[in-house]
Design a protein that fits this description.
The protein is an alpha/beta fold and about 350 residues long. It has two domains: about 200 residues, Alpha-Beta Complex (inorganic pyrophosphatase (n-terminal core)), CATH 3.90.1640.10; about 130 residues, Diaminopimelate Epimerase, Chain A, domain 1. The strands form two sheets. The chain has a six-stranded parallel β-sheet with strand order 3-2-1-4-5-6, sandwiched between helices. Strands 7-8-9-10-12-11 form a six-stranded mixed β-sheet. Strand 8, helix 10 and strand 9 form a beta-alpha-beta unit. Helix 2 packs antiparallel against helix 6 and helix 6 runs antiparallel to helix 7. Bound molecules: guanosine-5'-monophosphate and manganese (II) ion. The site of manganese (II) ion has 6 residues, from loops.
C-alpha cells in the first residue's frame, strides 16, 4: 500500500535506528487504541533504546493490565518535561493534530526531534511530522502500527501483539463498527497467531466494570437519555455531581455514547459530560451519516466519520440546548432517507 512505500519505510527506519532517546505519545484521554498502539511500540523499543511513553493525562483503570502500562509517565510528573525536551525521536500515535495532546501541544510542536505520525484520523496536521503514515481507512492506529512494524521487518513480541489486538478490539467495538475491513480481520488474524488469550482481553475490557459504573449506566439509560425519533437521534447528558454520586472514575463513561444507537432507527447519538472544568462532547453514528463534520463545525472538535468528539467551556445546559436546536438541520440526510423508505 502507498503509505508504506519502500522509500517511506526505509526513511523512517533510518531515523529510528539513529535515535537515542525516544518518546511515544498519544491523544488526551487515552483509549484502548491510544494505549494499544503506544504500548506495542514501547514494548518493542524499550530494550533497544531509551524509550518512554508520555501522555497528557491519566489512563482509565480498565487498561492498567496492559503490558508496559506501569511505565507510562503522565505530563504532570516532574520528569516528563525533561524527557520530552531531550527526545530525538517522537512517535505521535492515534492522533492527527498537536492540539490533541492538550498541555503537551507546545513542546511537541516546538521539539526538534524527528517526529513520526502513525494515525487513522482524516487530515493530519501539515508540517508537524517528518514521517506521516496516515490512513483514515484503517480501523485503528493499532492496525497501522502492526503494518508499519511488519513493513519495517520488526519482530514483535507476544506482549506487543496483545496491545495491538486490544487497540483493534476497542476501536472497532469488537469488530462491529463500519470501520472494520477485510484488512482489519487479516491483521487481527495475524495477531491472534501469536497465541495469547483473546478472551482474557475481552474480559479485562468488558466484564471488569466497577459496581458504580454499572449503576451509572443504568441511571443514564433510565433517567438521562433523550430520544428524538423524528430525527433518528438521541443524546445523554451528565453533570459532574451526577457522576460523583456513582463514585465516578476516569473511563467509567467510556462507550455510553454508543448506548442510544442500540435503539432501532436511532442513527445519531451524542453524549455530553462535565469533566475537568469543561464539557466533553462525544458523537457516534451508524451508516453513512458523518458526525466529524458536526463535531468540527459546532463543537470545536473533529474525528472519524462515525465517531467524533469535541469540547466547550459553556455551561452544560447551553451545549445541550445548542445540540437540540441543531437537530432539525443536521439530521436532514437521515430524515430524507426516511421519506425515501416510505
Ligand atoms: P470520544 O467520543 O471517544 O472521546 O472520541 C471519539 C473520536 O473523536 C476520537 O477517536 C477522536 O478521533 C475524536 N475526538 C474526540 N474529541 C476530540 C476533540 O476534542 N478534537 C478532535 N479533533 N477530535 C476529537
Ligand atoms: Mn484510534
Amino acid at each position: 500500500m502507498q503509505i508504506f512505500s519502500k522509500k517511506n519505510i526505509e526513511a523512517a527506519k533510518t531515523d529510528i535506528e539513529a535515535a537515542k532517546k525516544v518518546v511515544i505519545t498519544a491523544h488526551l484521554n487515552p483509549d484502548g487504541d491510544a494505549l494499544g498502539s503506544t504500548l506495542a511500540l514501547y514494548n518493542f523499543l524499550k530494550d533497544k533504546k531509551e524509550c518512554h511513553v508520555v501522555y497528557p493525562n491519566n489512563i482509565p483503570d480498565t487498561f492498567k493490565w496492559m503490558p508496559g502500562c506501569g511505565d507510562i509517565i503522565i505530563w504532570d510528573n516532574e520528569q516528563a518535561h525533561q524527557i520530552v525536551a531531550e527526545a530525538d525521536l517522537m512517535f505521535l500515535l492515534d492522533f492527527n493534530t498537536a492540539s490533541r495532546v492538550d498541555k503537551m501541544q507546545k513542546i511537541v510542536e516546538e521539539s526538534s526531534a524527528v517526529k513520526i505520525m502513525i494515525d487513522h484520523h482524516p487530515n493530519p496536521q501539515e508540517g508537524l511530522c517528518k514521517h506521516v503514515f496516515s490512513d483514515p481507512e484503517a480501523a485503528a492506529a493499532s492496525e497501522l502500527v502492526y503494518l508499519f512494524c511488519k513493513e519495517c521487518g520488526y519482530d514483535l513480541s507476544i506482549d506487543s501483539a496483545r496491545c495491538l489486538y486490544t487497540g483493534i478490539v476497542t476501536d472497532t467495538g469488537c469488530f462491529q463498527f463500519n470501520c472494520t475491513t477485510q484488512r482489519t480481520f487479516q491483521v487481527a488474524g495475524q495477531l491472534a497467531a501469536f497465541g495469547f488469550d483473546r478472551s482474557e482481553i475481552i474480559h479485562h475490557i468488558y466484564d471488569s466494570y466497577s459496581e458504580g459504573r454499572m449503576r451509572l449506566m443504568g441511571y443514564v439509560l433510565s433517567k438521562k437519555m433523550v430520544v428524538f425519533p423524528q430525527y433518528h437521534a438521541a443524546y445523554i447528558s451528565l453533570t459532574k455531581a451526577e457522576a460523583d454520586q456513582f463514585d465516578y472514575r476516569v473511563g467509567d463513561t467510556e462507550g455510553f455514547v454508543n448506548l442510544p444507537l442500540c435503539i432501532q432507527d436511532v442513527e445519531f447519538s451524542a453524549f455530553f459530560m462535565e469533566r475537568d472544568g469543561l464539557i466533553r462532547c462525544s458523537f457516534r453514528s451508524k451508516g453513512d451519516f458523518k458526525v466529524n463534520t458536526i463535531a468540527e463545525r459546532y463543537f470545536n472538535g473533529g474525528g472519524h466519520d462515525n465517531a467524533a468528539g469535541g469540547k466547550s467551556y459553556k455551561p452544560l445546559e447551553e451545549i445541550v440546548q445548542r445540540f437540540v436546536s441543531l437537530l432539525p438541520k443536521v439530521t436532514r440526510p437521515l430524515v430524507k432517507k426516511d421519506k425515501r423508505k416510505k
